[in-house]
């Protein structure tokens, strides 16, 4: 019998000083049995970094949500979908292959990848030339040590604050605080 996903609830208060976006989000994350707390929390941080696009891109007329992730490779890890059903932003975390990213670029206005982990640099060197032609694609690197620290914030029921300032994000709970400075590769 297959193991089911574990459900996590997060109340996320975002203060994006860079973009003037301040909002609270009640989120549900389904963590696939093969997904780590680190990866799940990177998904949450990526969503927080892009939440301002809900207002900036769609003027509030859209849905910011997590996708099926590892359960469905054709679904984004997180996305911003307007009310016509059009994917405005497609977010992937980890080190995806080039073909799924090419498909994602044909389905969304913008595709963002947040690579993390010690193997991210090796992945990027191997895939960079294949991705240069994808104009809609952005690739970001989260430092491995900071991404690992995100796992300490994971709880079944989370109260989190995300502060985005000068391109960096600080994700905090009562237990800990993690500061991440993403580096843009593409």
Automatic annotation (TrEMBL):
InterPro entries: Restrct_endonuc-II-like, YaeQ, YaeQ_sf. Signal peptide: none annotated. Transmembrane segments: none annotated. Pfam families: YaeQ (PF07152). This is YaeQ family protein. It comes from Simplicispira hankyongi. The lineage of its organism: Bacteria, Pseudomonadati, Pseudomonadota, Betaproteobacteria, Burkholderiales.
């Amino acid at each position: 019998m297959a193991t089911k996903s574990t459900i996590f609830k997060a109340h996320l208060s975002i203060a994006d000083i860079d973009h003037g976006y301040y909002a609270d989000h009640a989120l549900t994350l389904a963590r696939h049995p093969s997904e780590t707390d680190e990866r799940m929390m990177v998904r949450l941080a990526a969503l927080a970094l892009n939440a301002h696009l809900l207002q900036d891109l769609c003027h509030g007329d859209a849905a910011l949500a997590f996708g099926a992730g590892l359960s469905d490779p054709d679904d984004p890890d997180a996305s911003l979908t307007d009310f016509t059903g059009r994917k405005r932003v497609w977010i992937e975390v980890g080190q995806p292959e080039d073909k799924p990213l090419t498909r994602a670029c044909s389905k969304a206005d913008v595709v963002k990848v947040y690579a993390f982990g010690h193997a991210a640099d090796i992945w990027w060197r191997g895939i960079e030339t294949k991705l240069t032609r994808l104009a809609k694609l952005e690739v970001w690197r989260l430092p491995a040590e900071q991404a690992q620290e995100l796992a300490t914030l994971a709880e079944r029921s989370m109260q989190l604050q995300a502060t985005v300032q000068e391109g960096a994000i600080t994700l905090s709970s009562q237990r800990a605080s993690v500061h991440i400075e993403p580096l843009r590769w593409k």
